[in-house]
Amino acid sequence: MNLDLRTCNCVLLSLLAVWLSTSCSGKPGKYLLRSPYEDGYAPRYKVNFHAHTTRRDKQYAYSPLKLFEMAKEYGFDAFAITDLPHAGGIVEDPGVAGVLHIPGIEYGGKPHLIGIGIDSLTDSDDKQVQIDHIKKQGGLAYIPHPHWGGYDEAVMDSYDGYFGISVFNSLTYGVAEAKGVASEVIPYNEKVIDAMLTKGKSVAIIAEEDTKYEGTHRYGHQLNTAWVKIWDIDPEPPVEVSRLLEAVSAHRFTSHARHLRSHPDPPEFLRISTNGLWLSVVLDKPSNIKFISAGGRVKKEVKRSTTARYKVSPKDKYIRLKATYTDGYSSWAWTNPVYIHRR
Description:
two-stranded antiparallel ribbon; 16-stranded mixed beta sheet; about 20% helix; single chain
């Protein structure tokens, strides 16, 4: 009889604890985080979505074949050549083993538009028609270099169906952040991205190379200065374009950038995890880590650390992370947004 009473008391105490955690504590029991970086996923594939070749301009550094040969040397797993329609259209696979070719294009106009995973073009100059044509093929469209084109919130908000916006492009060389001093380029891009996220547009955050030049050209544009790292569960080879695009569509990647190859390697996110409303991150090198919410508000900053965590409030709407590593010059890494949802 006494044993039964003790058992009942334990059960009652357990039920009381659950009730207290979900009812008395309020909102944490009603909300959870949804992250593209789920358990079991890890950063696996280094990819560039935006590059140009001598087919577009003979002054550029690389033919398609040479570009892919050099990309292999720098550890890229996949690469998109995005020359313009008037420069020969979609470039064929250069055929370098070990570097997956992602067929792509860059449409000009305002705004410029990158399309990846495509097999045909449209003659229309209408941006929404271009986006829709890319999507009908199972491809993905995003908007590059907002600062360079002056693409503001109104421009971004006037189109639907694109999956992301560039936060870094090699056009930022010399005018973004060097020797720890910030100017307006990256902040401008981030401001536009946060404006769209705050409005409820589900956009990814993309670092892109816009590969063109080498040497001492006044812009960077150097190979191996910006890329995305696609997260995946270790798959059976070979990796296919469709699998990578599926991960990209789910925003399951992080972005990494530096101005020149001589600048420090960007930080790498080793783990991004959630537990209830807690968001935790582990990096490969001590960096300044910012947790950024709706409106671009910095909710927490941890300096010179490889780890950080933040308890998200439902009022945050979303949280994205930015890591800055500085050793003479700065390099950066960004996550895509983690969203807050009701259970």
